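Researcher: We plan to redesign the surface later, but first we want a full-length starting point. Tokens attached.
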């Protein structure tokens, strides 16, 4: 069965867009537009991509316009997850010019930022398409935008890691140091967690890998291991736990990591280092 497309809760979208508009409009509103554009002025604008990429954030973009004026007509031409060519039309907006111009920057900020994440994720995903591995994100996201960044990762063909500290247990090196070892940390986590909570543990040596397997970890995070060590880990694991490689992953290294046989490869670069996709809004006269 085909996987259903990712979706965002409407209330989450509305809250984020409202906060962004309040931040931008400030105490006096858009004084430039108010000073130069008559209240009754109408306009039509097109949003188009100026470079190749993957579109993401269309709903947030549309919400920004409609929140300032529900009468604005927003016609989406290319949906989230679609690849666009330079110059390709993404959407059209028509209606009150004041509302359109005042919402423009917030609408484009969401669209450009999330499309950038989706585009970079797609580049990573293509590098490992010949393997079983999937690229996934981390909790390294801009504060307040995590749900949207992770949505963009899925639109780009990647997978999501945990959303926060409350939806999975990830025992990292500092937890292990304080808890007194891999096995002890995993056993404590197993006793604490509900039956639906997965337990992942970070390891950086083969000995820790053995401990994690013997302790019954569900997922094992392989930190900064070179490909030759990852191959040993995959053989040692023999399919018992889900294996996630992480650390210094780049477009140049991800294929070699994926070819070792790991299940997931996590990187913060897709959410923290993605350049924006250049999308412009142009008013059409006549």
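Model: Full-length starting sequence:
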């Amino acid at each position: 069965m085909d996987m259903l497309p990712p979706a965002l809760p409407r209330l989450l979208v509305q809250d984020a867009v409202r906060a962004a508009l309040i931040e931008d409009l400030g105490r006096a509103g858009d004084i430039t537009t108010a000073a130069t554009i008559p209240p009754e002025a109408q306009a039509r604008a097109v949003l188009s991509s100026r470079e190749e990429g993957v579109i993401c954030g269309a709903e947030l973009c549309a919400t920004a316009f409609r929140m300032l004026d529900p009468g604005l007509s927003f016609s989406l031409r290319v949906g989230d997850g679609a690849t666009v060519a330079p110059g390709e039309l993404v959407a059209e907006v028509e209606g009150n010019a004041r509302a359109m111009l005042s919402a423009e920057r917030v609408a484009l900020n969401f669209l450009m930022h999330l499309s950038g994440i989706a585009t970079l994720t797609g580049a990573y995903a293509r590098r490992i398409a010949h393997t079983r591995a999937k690229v996934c994100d981390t909790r390294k996201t801009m504060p307040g935008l995590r749900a949207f960044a992770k949505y963009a990762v899925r639109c780009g063909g990647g997978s999501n890691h945990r959303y926060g500290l409350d939806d999975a247990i990830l025992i990292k090196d500092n937890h292990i140091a304080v808890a007194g070892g891999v096995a002890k940390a995993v056993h404590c986590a197993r006793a604490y967690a509900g039956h639906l909570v997965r337990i992942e543990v970070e390891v950086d040596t083969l000995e820790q890998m053995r401990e994690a397997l013997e302790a019954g970890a569900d997922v094992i995070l392989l930190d900064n291991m070179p490909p030759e060590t990852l191959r040993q880990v995959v053989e040692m694991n023999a399919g018992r736990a889900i294996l996630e490689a992480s650390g210094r992953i780049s477009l140049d290294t991800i294929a070699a990591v994926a070819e070792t046989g790991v299940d997931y490869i996590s990187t913060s670069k897709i959410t923290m280092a993605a350049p924006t996709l250049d999308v412009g809004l142009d008013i059409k006269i006549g």
